[in-house]
Amino acid sequence: MAKYADDAKALYELVGGKENISSVTHCATRMRFVLQDPDQADIEKIEALASVKGTFTQAGQFQVIIGNDVQEFYNEFASISGIEGVNKEEAKTDAKKNMSLLQRMLAALAEIFTPLIPAIVVGGLILGFRSVIGDIKMLEAGTKTITEVYPFWNGTYNFLWLIGEAIFHFLPVGITWSIAKKMGTTQILGIVLGITLVSPQLLNAYAVATTKAADIPFWDFGFAHIPMIGYQAQVIPAMLAGFMLAYLEIGLRKIVPNAVSMIVTPFFSLVPTVLAAHLILGPIGWKIGDVIANVVYSGLTSSLSWLFAALFGFLYAPLVVTGLHHMTNAIDLQLMSQFHGTNLWPMIALSNIAQGSAVLAIIFLHKGNEKEEQVSIPATISCYLGVTEPAMFGINLKYLYPFVAAMIGSGIAAVISVSSGIMANSIGVGGIPGILSIQPQYFLIFAFCMLIAIVVPFTLTVLFRKYNILNKVDQAPIRTFGKREFRTDSKKASNL
């Protein structure tokens, strides 16, 4: 019999059988189910299977952690169940029926920004490197920058801005393209719409504040003047325009005959959207973005900034669990546009580190539990590189006390970060490599904050376990630096 046949058959029965499985697929380490009735899944028995490292539910999908052999397991499951899998996009679409309206809106927001994150991370690294060589006076007794002394680095500094400008100033192009892709509409129209928001014909958004009202160019329609203002780096105007274009195209497809759709639909989708973008949506979106950015920035720089930071740092991990954290991408990008940096992103990176450190403590406490280590060790590495879901759903929420320990450590680190005025150039890798996105003058203090996010969660996790605080599940032996506190009858307990 094949290696995973027994467990695959058991899993098939424990999730409710064919009648309860709407669709199934897999990723690098997990089986992903969309279930008709998620409550039918017997989680306790599923997690007891030898091949299963843990389970969690996210974005309407019931996910079972298998590990690196998930492809082999999936093949066995498909053979036994007779259910043919679907691709990830089809599974996501199917999963939406298990999501509330708010969850669907947040999932849509995530789908818009996720494809853009690699470029934004690259842009953040470029801005950080340019700051080091072009803004910090570290040569000739602290009077000159590297670019002022060395022609090569001056050329590098100027060349890298070609990429940085393309990523951040022309961000609306990426947003409108991503919305068109997500909505299943014509992607090239999304790209063209984005270009019309940042065209060189328009007054650059960064020059608006320093340009006299009388000098702002405009389109003269005789009965009306429309300002020719660009929306470089603006997020909300691009989102409003992108959705208008998508819904116009979808609506026109339903009513325009196929014979003329190729001509009529693109024209009457794009032209009215571009006009509305510059006349209505752009100004409204700009104002909304300014208000959001000002409220967040004011909260993080006011006399109560410590309280705002403590709450955000403490609650960010629960936001990830609910999916609400996706809204921070838009806020970060708006802060970057308005204040040339974000003081929100550093706290997110610290929260990720804190969750990983709590799992690190579990690895220490449960050393020898091979089944758990197959989840906890990769989860820790993943957390430190910015992806927290495997750690939170696979380990920390399972025991609860490490999750709370990480929240406390994250809150403390966030207070220090905000109190120190730490700013990031942009969104970056949300873990230890996140320091590369921090503005250079804050490197040392941010490194200290990272140390806090490592030490505090680790220590609290060990103490919470020792004194059985917030723990209703974990009954494994405690490891305390070479000394056992107590033993259980667990067959998987190791002699430490």
Task: Write a brief structural summary.
The chain is mainly alpha-helical. The protein is 60% helix and 6% strand.
Q: Helices, strands, pairings?
A:
Elements: H1 5-14, E1 21-26, E2 30-35, H2 43-48, E3 54-58, E4 61-65, H3 70-81, H4 88-95, H5 101-113, H6 117-134, H7 146-149, H8 151-168, H9 171-183, H10 187-198, E5 218-220, E6 225-227, H11 236-255, H12 258-301, H13 305-322, H14 327-339, H15 345-365, H16 370-384, H17 389-399, H18 401-419, H19 443-466
Antiparallel strand pairs: 1-2, 2-4, 3-4, 5-6
Please identify the structural class as seen in this structure: mainly alpha
The shape, in one word, is: globular
Rg, alpha carbons: 26 Å
- Unreliable spans are 486-496
Q: pLDDT average, as an integer?
A: 87
Question: How would you characterize the overall build of this protein?
Answer:
The protein is mainly alpha-helical. It is 60% helix and 6% strand. The chain is built from 19 helices and 6 strands. The protein has helices spanning 5-14, 43-48, 70-81, 88-95, 101-113, 117-134, 146-149, 151-168, 171-183, 187-198, 236-255, 258-301, 305-322, 327-339, 345-365, 370-384, 389-399, 401-419, 443-466, and strands spanning 21-26, 30-35, 54-58, 61-65, 218-220, 225-227. The strands form 2 sheets. A 4-stranded antiparallel beta sheet has the order 1-2-4-3, with helices on both faces. A hairpin with a 2-residue loop joins strand 3 and strand 4. Helix 5 packs across helix 9 (171-183), helix 10 crosses helix 12 (258-301) and helix 13 (305-322) runs antiparallel to helix 18 (401-419). The two termini are 36 Å apart. The model is unreliable at 486-496 (pLDDT under 50).
